[in-house]
């Protein structure tokens, strides 16, 4: 053969994984990378083994499989969320094979139509920020695990939330009823607030200064979304209230929506437990009716309910005695007639004659005696001043300081009121003689009723003071 050296060559080719060369020689090494032009007349017999399938020399590792879906996805809070730029927190259990996580928000469970998949880092909880969420509708959050091999199926957090960052409008106080008691505030009335999503309730507080909380701290009025009027009462609806007489109080009110957003606070005008109906009338209370006053002031007896006449003779009158149906409802004794059914001015027998001197102004009492139910004296009245209430004036002379204003009857020697010496009545208006006309506090009848302005048996007698 033409070759200078004799070689035994065996070439095995074509394996399932690619070309493999196996050479053997007789006692000598074969330089496969040398000059072997005899073999197929190849100029370069070098073999690139990196191209052989299964070889790792110089090759990239294959990507891992996608991670499993996170387990136990959960929202930190469902329901209303008082923001439209952040989401509630969402948490999950770490997923096998995950290198990071992504979260989304949609209008349906698993949806991404509000916030598409957004990186949530490699932890196990996340809250979106800097987003713009639609308000007032149900929103759903999902989480998925991610690695270089892909992403897991979405894990949907159970439940939904509603974004609401808009506060309700402020209520407008339209009226305040001066009807407080020692355990009740004045009643306030307002125009209802509105909210873009859902109004929840109103909150209120009371102070002795505008906006103050020293009487009642800020407290929610339960189930109040539809309310437009409210009176705070001690021990009702979680309120604790004790009203000091003759002291200005102010009621504050704000609206809250379902997400907890609050309106601006509005404050009522001043209200108080007044000493007399005249004080109330002077303060602008013009409606006759039942009110609570504290005629001896905050340091004396407890406030009491009275009937106020805000119209007769310029108004501001406190009814201190009212005896109805005299024909059948006599007082059992003169002692009863002095003070009876205090706090119940609509009772058929009502008397606070013991308190008349508490209504003095400038050292005297202004009084009005009338007979609302006839027959003889219907709508007639005696209007005068005297220095003291009748229980402080003994019988036998004209009461000190007596000064008539409008007297409809002078029969039988009308003189003002004093204690009667007649067994039939506690008080009378014939202080200088032995008659008992103009009787107040009867234990006996005169004819069918009371000896009123004409002595003809009227069946209702009232005494008012201011």
Structural summary, described in words:
This protein is mostly beta strands. It folds into 4 domains: 1-57, no CATH class; 71-163, Immunoglobulins (Immunoglobulin-like), CATH 2.60.40.10; 172-267, Immunoglobulins (Immunoglobulin-like, Sandwich), CATH 2.60.40.10; 277-465, Alpha-Beta Complex (Gamma Fibrinogen, Chain A, domain 1). It contains 2 helices and 29 strands. It has helices at residues 277-282, 334-338; strands spanning 71-75, 79-81, 90-93, 100-106, 115-119, 125-126, 140-147, 150-151, 155-156, 161-163, 172-177, 187-191, 199-207, 216-221, 229-230, 250-257, 266-267, 289-293, 304-309, 317-323, 339-340, 349-352, 365-370, 381-386, 403-407, 418-419, 425-428, 440-442, 461-465. A hairpin with an 8-residue loop joins strand 4 and strand 5. It is rod-shaped and about 135 Å long. It starts with 70 loop residues before the first strand and ends with a strand. The model is unreliable at 1-52 (pLDDT under 50).
């Amino acid at each position: 053969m033409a070759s200078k050296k004799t070689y035994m060559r065996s070439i095995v080719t074509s394996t399932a994984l690619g070309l493999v060369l196996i050479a053997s020689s007789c006692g000598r090494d074969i330089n496969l990378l040398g000059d072997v032009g005899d073999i197929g007349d190849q100029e370069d017999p070098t073999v690139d083994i990196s191209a052989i399938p299964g070889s790792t020399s110089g090759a990239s590792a294959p990507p891992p499989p996608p991670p499993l879906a996170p387990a136990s996805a959960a929202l930190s809070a469902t329901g209303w969320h008082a923001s439209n730029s952040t989401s509630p927190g969402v948490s999950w259990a770490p997923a096998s094979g995950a290198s990071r996580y992504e979260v989304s928000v949609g209008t349906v469970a698993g949806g991404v139509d509000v916030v598409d998949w957004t990186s949530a880092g490699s932890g196990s909880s996340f809250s979106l920020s800097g987003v713009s969420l639609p308000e007032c509708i149900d929103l759903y959050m999902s989480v998925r695990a991610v690695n270089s091999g892909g992403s897991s199926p979405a894990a949907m957090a159970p439940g939904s939330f509603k974004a609401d960052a808009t506060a309700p409008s402020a209520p407008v106080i339209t009226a305040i009823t001066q009807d407080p008691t020692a355990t009740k505030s004045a009643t306030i009335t307002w125009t209802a607030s509105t909210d873009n999503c859902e109004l929840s309730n109103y909150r209120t507080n009371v102070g002795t200064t505008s906006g103050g909380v020293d009487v009642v701290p800020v407290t929610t009025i339960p189930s109040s979304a539809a309310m437009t009027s409210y009176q705070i009462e001690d021990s009702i609806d979680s309120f604790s209230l004790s009203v000091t007489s003759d002291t200005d109080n102010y009621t504050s009110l704000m609206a809250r929506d379902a997400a907890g957003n609050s309106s601006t606070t509005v404050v009522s005008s001043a209200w108080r437990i007044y000493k007399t109906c005249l004080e109330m009338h002077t303060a602008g209370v013009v409606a006759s009716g039942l009110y609570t006053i504290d005629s001896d002031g905050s340091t004396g007896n407890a406030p009491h309910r009275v009937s106020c006449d805000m119209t007769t003779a310029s108004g501001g009158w406190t009814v201190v005695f009212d005896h109805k149906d005299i024909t059948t409802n006599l007082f059992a004794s003169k002692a009863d007639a002095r003070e009876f059914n205090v706090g119940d001015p609509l009772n058929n027998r009502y008397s606070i004659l013991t308190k008349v001197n508490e209504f003095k102004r400038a050292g005297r009492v202004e009084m009005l005696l009338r007979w609302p139910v006839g027959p003889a004296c219907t709508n007639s009245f005696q209007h005068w001043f005297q220095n003291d209430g009748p229980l402080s004036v003994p019988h036998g002379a004209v009461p000190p300081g007596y000064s008539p204003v409008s007297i409809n009857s002078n029969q039988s020697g009308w003189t003002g009121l004093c204690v009667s010496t007649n067994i039939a009545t506690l008080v009378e208006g014939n202080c200088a003689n032995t008659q008992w006309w103009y009787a107040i506090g009867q234990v006996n009848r005169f004819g069918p009723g009371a000896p009123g302005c004409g002595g003809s048996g009227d069946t209702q007698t009232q005494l008012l003071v201011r």
